[in-house]
Amino acid sequence: MTGYPTGTVTFLFTDIEGSTRLARAYPETWETARAQHHDILRTAIEAHRGVVFQVMGDAFCAAFWKAGEALTAALSAQQKLQTHEWGDCVIRVRMGIHTGEAEAHDGEYRGYLTLSLSQRLMSAGHGGQILVSGAAENLLRGQLPQNVNLRDLGKHHFRDVPEPVRVFQVAAPDLQAQFPPLRTVPSHPNNLPTQLNSFVGREKELADIQKLLSDTHILTLIGPGGTGKTRLSIQVASALLDRFPDGLWLVELAPILDPLLVPRVTAMTIGLRDEPQRPVIDMLCDYLREKKMLLILDNCEHLVDACAHMADRILHAASEVRILASSREALGIGGEVTYRVPSLGLPDIGHLPTLESLSQYEAVKLFIDRARSAVPTFSVTNDNAPAVAQICHRLDGIPLAIELAAAKLRVLGVEQIAKRLDDRFRLLTGGSRTALERHQTLRAAIDWSYNLLPVTEQVLLRRLSVFVGGWTLEAAESVCIDEAVESIEVLDLLEQLINKSLVLMEENQSETRYSMLETMRQYANEKLVESGESDAVRDRHLEYFLKLAETAEPHIIRPEQLEWLAKLDTDYENIRLALEWALSRATAEPSLRLCSALGKFWTFRCYSMEGANWLASALSKSPQHDTENIWRVRALCRDAEMAEGLDDLQRMKTSAIRALELAERGLEQRDKAIARFFVGFAWIRFVENERACPFLEKSLIQFHELQDPYWEAFVYRWLGVLKTSQGESGTLGRALHSLELARKAGERSNLARALLDYAGQLFSEGQAHEAKKVIHEAIEISKQIGSNINLLMAQMELAGIEWHDGNSEQAKLLFQDAQARLRVLGDKLQTSNCSTFLGLLAMEQGEWKQAQNYFEESLSVAKDLTHHQGITQSLGFLTVVFFFQGEIEKSKQYLRESVVRAKDIPPVNIVVFLKTLLVLPYFQNHEHFARLLGAIDSFEQKAGYTVAPLFNRYYVHAKAQLRTSLGKAAFESALAEGQKLSLAEALKLAQDMSEAM
């Protein structure tokens, strides 16, 4: 093994006894002696495969993979130190060897408890002495060097170390045998139980609580059952042994049911006997009056009043006494400070860290520790790491739940445990038989808290379980009320549940929200089902979130959209649950209404796949009555929109046409106009532009009459795209007017797209600098709304400008990044466009095979989408690729097919296609080639349309080459002949030229 030891590590810490005194007494020889000391230690450590990871003055910190190597290194160093000729400046070194858990990171170690005990163990010794902890001694048994023994010095207390540590002294023939007593913390009276397993994590909490106890008389640790309040209290107390000379006493209140027994049990715990005719509390206060003591009142929740009265009396009588209480809720007395014990730290299961980093999270560390107790060979691997993280995450980092889950490794694999957590209360049983009964199963732990609640608090808690991802006070007052709980009571009851650590409160800038740990929510939901109230509560939950979605719908296409999108984002988990419930109801109306209201939200958030699935389920429900038509029309329009985002064009067209058919049966003009637009939009996507135009034009007129700025701007933009593709003049003007309408409407997604359209036209007109400014404005607006698709479209526009400006490598990186992220979003068309541009870049760099792969990918997607323009264009580019790879026949075949396909695309797109063919500088008949250039030139002038610069570059290059090869007169003559050709004749000319290749 090489590198820094990690995991279970044995540490050797050393320092020179009395080094300051030696430095002062022997200033002339001290530095030489210290350098000799350093050389002896480093040589001994490295000779036994140790790593010196820190040297502080004269103190060495070394790490070893094996305890035996640390011991032999220490023996070797100590023997050489004692036989070295020091002169008057005699150096004596004390050493400590301890084994524990620690992780190496960039030459440093994490594992405070292990490192601090190693330091304290070494500091307890004397010069010439080697001390070994009990943990290291366990590993050294049976493998000590000959004539070397370990002498048991008994258990000792160390500062800030919770448990007493058994210490051994290394005994060897050539080492000093007798030393003064160890410099350890004297033991103070206490009844703290010995912990049989390790305490994991909580370093921040330990530090926080110790600091708070130094500044307050009573500190109460609060939190739900199973969060480890008792164990944390004991750990804190163990670290404070030297601060309380009169002792630390754990008063276990869990078994006590009678509140009157609280003072008596406390008195008995600290060793007091009853005095006849005298109240126990008086006797207790008199005894404690002059004492400096820590009382730990554990599990106060079922005896809160009695504990509060006793604590108040004691603290008024005994100024040096401190009380550390643990409870589900605060005791509520003067001077009390509360500390909410959080769940253990968790990794992000969506972005798992490396294995090494994963084990640093407290919840994972606890799982690993307890798992190894159950199955000593257990380890976290790349295969099981996701399941380990999922277990810890789904159990909310609750220590008790994690320990119970780890214990199940005796009979189940990690992945099996993770899969069974939906039924966690049946799974997580079988805790220690000697533990409190409520700590033997997860259900029992939560039963204890639930059964202590008054009836109305139980009712509210189980009704709140209908919420997922949290809720607001308004939501609770709407969903959780009936004759048993009135709206006016909800706030007070909610406050009680927060005080008892069963509900969590989170404040942000806009509103206060509440939530439950998922484990508590599942428990309460089971109680809700058992109560028979579940259906009624879920109906009210659906009604509330349907109202929220329908209220938000008009606002998310207006300038105030960010606020309303945030509302839907925050409660989207609740909305999903409401959708599930709506789909389970007999009538289709609730699910159709909810899907209709969410359509634009799904579009803006790129949830097209999810939205399409919800819509398919809602639309599959049979209509119950004619009044559902309006909701079905709106849902069909949303379905067409989702299908367009997924490039499912057949579904888009079918839903749009059906929506318009139903809308024509007497629905409002706005519904007809929206349905009519989606029919036109579907024909655009099928490149049936002549059929699309009347639908878009009529819907635009209707939205203008309705004074609906969003839909007017939205439809006008697509109508502009359509007219541009048909070669109508005024392209830049249309793009500018579209932008003006989008600014007036104020909806950011359409505004960003309009900006990108305008930037594209500016770029085509040769105004690249202005185009860049417009693109950056689109980017800022897209960031505001969180539109990933618009950001990626903007990135592609920027990549095109970079390419045109000669920065091909930067363009390539931008296209590749956009393509990868578009694949994640599921946008096939734009992913295919990225492939086309990357193919062109590869082709320009002579990387023909790579270009072929990109164009074939683009062709495959275009065929899947029945995108005629994409098919034609990809075939044209493959023609070039195969030619330059020497596959002439295949090149001819692709060119013939592309020319035939070109007849099915709009005239302006034919011009674009013909310009792509100009990449081919190899047509043998240069006069025909010049005629083709003339035809392209003529079509562009008639249409008033300029092809994007990325394609226009081929046209400019071909023109310059032909003028040189033919001569000016012949070139101009051929160009003039070509300007007289029709589109059909130009395509025929291209086909004839391909045959002559």
Task: Describe this structure as you would to a colleague.
The structure is a single chain. With 997 residues, the protein is an alpha/beta fold. Among the domains are: 7-171, Nucleotide cyclase, GGDEF domain (Alpha-Beta Plaits, 2-Layer Sandwich); 203-340, Rossmann fold, CATH 3.40.50; 355-444; 823-995, Alpha Horseshoe (Serine Threonine Protein Phosphatase 5, Tetratricopeptide repeat), CATH 1.25.40.10. 59% of the residues lie in helices and 9% in strands. The strands form three sheets. Strands 1, 2, 3, 4, 5, 6, 7 and 8 form an eight-stranded mixed β-sheet that branches. A five-stranded parallel β-sheet has the order 10-11-12-9-13, with helices on both faces. A two-stranded antiparallel sheet has the order 14-15. α9 crosses α10 (304-317). The radius of gyration is 39 Å and the shape is flat. 47% of the residues are buried. Residues 431-439 have low confidence and may be disordered.
Keywords:
997 residues, alpha/beta, Alpha-Beta Plaits, eight-stranded mixed β-sheet, flat
The CATH architecture of one domain can be named as Alpha Horseshoe
Shape descriptor reads flat
Q: Mind summarizing the main beta sheet?
A: 8 strands, mixed
Radius of gyration: 39 Å
Write down the CATH topology of one domain: Serine Threonine Protein Phosphatase 5, Tetratricopeptide repeat
Could you report the average pLDDT, rounded to the nearest whole number?
86
Number of helical stretches of at least 4 residues: 45
State the helicity in percent bands.
Answer: 55-70%
Residue stretches low in confidence (pLDDT < 50, at least 5 long) are 431-439
Strand residue percentage: 5-15%
CATH level 4 superfamily of one domain: Tetratricopeptide repeat domain
Distance between the first and last residues' Cα: 66 Å
The chain-level structural class is alpha/beta
Q: How many strand elements?
A: 15
- The level 1 CATH classification of one domain is Mainly Alpha
